[in-house]
Amino acid sequence: MARLNKVKLLFGPYKPPPLKRGDRAYCLFRGAPVVVTGCTDAPIPWPLCHLAGYRRPCGRGILVDDELARAICHESVTAVKYWWGVSRNTAGRWRGAFGIGRTDNEGTHRLVLGAIQVNMDTRGDDGRV
Question: Which of 8, 104, 120, 129 is the most exposed, having the fewest neighbouring CB atoms within 10 Å of its CB?
Answer without folding.
Answer: 129
